[in-house]
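TEACHING EXERCISE
Course module: macromolecular assemblies
Task: Read the component lines below, then compare them to the predicted structure of the full complex.
Student: A.B.
Group: 4
Components provided:
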Amino acid sequence: MNTSYQKTVRSGHKNFRSVVHEPKRLFESYSEEEVLGKIIKESKNTMLSEYLQKRFQEYKEIGFPVFKRISLNRPNFKAVNFEKLCGPNSIADIDEQGMELIKKYDFEGTDRKYLLMAELFGNCGYYIRTQDDQDVGIIKLKYGDNSIFENSLFNLKPGSKAVIIRQINGNYSDTLRNGVIRGVIGRNSELVLINIIKTAKAGSISESGYFSLNDNSRLRVVEVSAGQGKYVSNYVYSMDGKNSVLRAAPLFMGAGESVSDIFHTIKFNAPAAIGVLEAKGVLKDRSSCIFRGTLDISKGAFDADGKESSFTLSLSPHAKMQTIPGLLVAENRVNASHAATLGSISEEKLYYMMNRGFSKTQAKKLISIGIFDELTEALELYDKEIAQETVDYVYSNL
Amino acid sequence: MSDNQDIIYDLQKGQEKYDFRNKQAAKSMVIPGLNESIIREISESKSEPQWMLEQRLNAFKIYETWHEPNFGVDLSNVDLSKIVTYIHPRYKKATSWDNVPPEIKETFEKLGVPQAERLALSGVGAQYDSEVVYHNIKTELESQGIIFLDTESAVRKYPDLVKKYFMKAFSPSNHRYSALNNAIWSGGTFLYIPPNVNVKLPLQAYFRMNNEGMGQFEHSIIIADEGSRLHFVEGCSAPYYNAINFHAGMVEIFVKKGARVKYSTIQNWSKNTFNLNSKRAIVDQDGIMEWVTGSMGSHKSMTYPTSILRGKGAKNETIAVSFAGPNQHLDTGSKVFMFAPYTSSTVDSRSISLGGGWSFYRGWLKVDERARGAKATVRCNALMLDNESRSDTIPLIEVFTDDADVGHEAKVGRISDEQIFYLMSRGMSEKEAKSMIVRGFIEPFAKELPLEYAIEMNKLLNLEVESTIG
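Instructor-supplied answer key:
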């Protein structure tokens, strides 16, 4: 089994090892070998096919994880249409350099089983490349109802710029939508990534992401997850270049009986990197969310500046808020801090709004929608229509 | 020698005070390992009632089915079949230091326990290996109805009272080491404070492990009845051996309505000791539980003093300092479970790591849906004195109500050049400046200890921190 991939949590120091919880695993068969056979048969990319065959060996040896906090739907491989991959820039056309990057940035994801599954059965995925110093503008990636498994790679060459907006509408009732995305942000390049993920009732979504930031590169991520379904995400930002800058804003809105498990990790591997993680969310009804944000600073990443904060607002006595802010520090010449606040809307704020003619429900909605300012600010720069549509969606669910 | 080598050298020098051995004290060692016949032997030697033996045997069955914790320090090189689980005492328990055998008395004299008792304490219990060798309380406190005994004596003298509280804060099925302690416990303190009694000076228990390769499994129970007040101080140490020593003690505290208990710990086990201590307090209405914890010793530690706030308005205050030096992995923290309305909690955790040590704060704060109007804060600060060490902080915060205010903040850093420059510009040397900053860092912990008790604690702090920096 391949054990050389990057684990999300670093668990050793000198001769010491820390025990890390491993989920129980169930070994179930969904005739995946047969499904994979069809994919490989129809694939015209020999390099990709060979890679998938190798990955399948590892996949088979790992059982399906039983997560502590969230129970995802089982995948339905047979329902997936593997004949057509989505649009231009398809991952099916990946070149040698792209393959090398996928191999190089191998990681754990929401779980190794899910990461491998998304790669192996990726019936949708984008391979977006820029040229040196190219500004490719705004790329909107839409995913249809058939885009059940996604395997995407964004490769930004030095000095280039891109804005990528991913819109995932979670019409995946009773099944699992499972994606893996990788981003390589080259020297002096800049990527803005906006993920809009709508989770449908009875649907499950898994998102694994890994981003490598090189010298002086910039990455801004706004991740919005909203709806009534189940959502698990694991994003790792690897600050591999000096003076690289990350700003990530996971925003979440839970309604109904939705369950979210959102995990973002900034790994500081190079000097003078700046990483800011600001999570905000609002929960209503019987929804629950766990947000985990970790700053992991390696020895040698001196002058790193890491800040993490989370703010969760509860609108219901039955909502469940959980947060695990982690600081793992092996370098002492750093600034690293985290803060978390969990609470409800204060009576004073409600009184102020109601004094100005709003009903209590309207007041609560207006205060809550403020949590998504980061999204509206980011989106309005690039696509006002999507911005309005997303805010309307969130507002209607509040 | 570099500054850090100075610090490490001084650390080792500081431990000399605790690093002495007494080879004459053990009467006979039980064969290493853990099985039913050893448990029966321990129970028989203590002349225990049948119910306690049955509890032990039941817990042992549970222990055998439990896995190692799926978090924390690596315990893979701990082989409990090689640990001596119980050592018969050579001497009877004494209530006067004059009746304590000279070699054991000398041990505690060196540790400063009798002096501290004379100067600043209401009573002292002293455990040497598996058994308590000395227990005494001031006569006037005894006359107020306070019961202060070693736990096995309490089992015999007050069976109903012990039965009411024994393994009631914990269950043997909580985790592997709660089952282990329940199965083979020996020693510890039983303390009952009657309603509205205010114990003005602290009571102390001191635990000493003398023998190589042994395990200590004391079990303490403290009951602070309604409206009473108590400060209990716990200290521990052991000489250094090459073999593993193992400590898996347990403390159960019951804070009744309106009572207040402060439990201070100065953990200074030798650097070959694995310390897996379980401490839990059940706090009733308007009760206050204060944990003041200093973890300086041991090779690896896992200890998370826990408060279960089950009464309306109950309160928890935790102040903890851990000091991870060379070859130490200290996985410590706090747990607070808020199950009642208007409960409140503050946690202030500070850690220092140097010389390659690994300090890990692991916390768990849970605000249940019944805890409406609850307020809680968790603060974690870590100071890394060199670039060989590591400092981690992972708190879990769960809030299951929309009517609670919960905040958390954490910061990791070093002593900045600006801080040192500022103090040096006022005439201090670099070492003096560092020393002052470190003392300031741990001050909230140090000031929670009784001034008089500094005879024990301040010596240790000076040895472990101040003198090593200065």
